[in-house]
């Protein structure tokens, strides 16, 4: 029974990936970028440093470059003024060049599969849907957000064909 459940879950995820891929081919519309696009600020240890006071309720799209590939992040304040930071690619639509999110009103919308997520839900992402990817290594210190880059480096292949907002 357990194997059957695993097979069903994997089949659903594969199906969602195909839907995202074909929607990308036939229905890709790219909306204008609302917010700021900037290069990542890197400290001496190779971490990304985000100054909380520079983040507003409009998205900041952060470009982290590694081995010639731009890996995108989104930073934005939620309704409680907490700075949210996520990796700007869809978990299921990873091969699509449109596998990134842009702000449309109070929601981020995938430019590939058109899935939407509210700004306030960016800290409640799960691994089973078409959502941005959580940051695994984050520290908040003295008004700065420190993002480790190990996870980003591991995800770099997802960004080879990525056409998201970048500096």
Short description:
This protein is of the alpha+beta class and 167 residues long. Helices cover 19% and strands 31% of the residues. The strands form three sheets. A five-stranded mixed beta sheet has the order 1-4-5-6-10, with no helix packed on it. Strands 2-3-12-11 form a four-stranded antiparallel beta sheet, with no helix packed on it. It has a three-stranded antiparallel beta sheet with strand order 7-8-9, with no helix packed on it.
Can you put this structure into words, describing what you see?
- The longest helix has 26 residues, at 2-27.
- The N and C termini lie far apart (49 Å).
- β8 and β9 form a beta hairpin.
- This protein has 167 residues and is α+β, with helices and mostly antiparallel strands.
- The chain contains 2 helices and 12 strands; from the N terminus they run αββββββββββββα.
- It has one domain (2-159).
- Mean pLDDT is 83; it is low at 20-31.
Write the layout of secondary structure elements.
Elements: H1 2-27, E1 36-39, E2 41-42, E3 48-51, E4 60-66, E5 69-77, E6 83-87, E7 101-104, E8 107-110, E9 116-118, E10 133-134, E11 138-141, E12 144-147, H2 150-154
Parallel strand pairs: 1-4
Antiparallel strand pairs: 2-3, 3-12, 4-5, 5-6, 6-10, 7-8, 8-9, 11-12
Helix content percent band:
10-25%
Q: For the terminal residues, how far apart are their CA atoms? A: 49 Å
Task: List segments where confidence is low: pLDDT < 50 over at least 5 consecutive residues.
Answer: 20-31
- Name the overall outline: globular
Structural class: alpha+beta
Largest sheet: 5 strands, mixed
* Rg result: 16 Å
What strand order characterises the main sheet? 1-4-5-6-10
The count of strands amounts to 12
Strand residue percentage: 25-35%
Specify the number of helices.
2
């Amino acid at each position: 029974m357990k194997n059957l459940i695993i097979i069903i879950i994997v089949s659903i995820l594969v199906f969602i990936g195909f839907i995202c891929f074909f929607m990308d081919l036939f229905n890709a519309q790219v909306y204008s970028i609302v917010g700021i696009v900037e290069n990542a600020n890197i400290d001496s240890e190779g971490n990304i440093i985000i100054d909380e006071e520079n983040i507003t309720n409009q998205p900041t799209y952060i470009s982290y470059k590694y081995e010639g590939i731009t890996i995108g992040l989104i930073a934005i304040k939620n309704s409680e003024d907490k700075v949210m930071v996520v990796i700007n690619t869809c978990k299921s639509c990873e091969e699509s060049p449109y596998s990134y999110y842009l702000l449309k009103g109070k929601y981020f919308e995938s430019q590939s599969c058109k899935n939407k997520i509210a700004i306030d839900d960016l800290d409640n992402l799960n691994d089973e849907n078409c959502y941005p990817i959580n940051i695994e290594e984050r520290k908040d210190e003295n008004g700065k957000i420190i993002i480790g880059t190990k996870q980003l480096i591991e995800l770099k292949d997802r960004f080879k064909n990525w056409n998201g907002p970048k500096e």
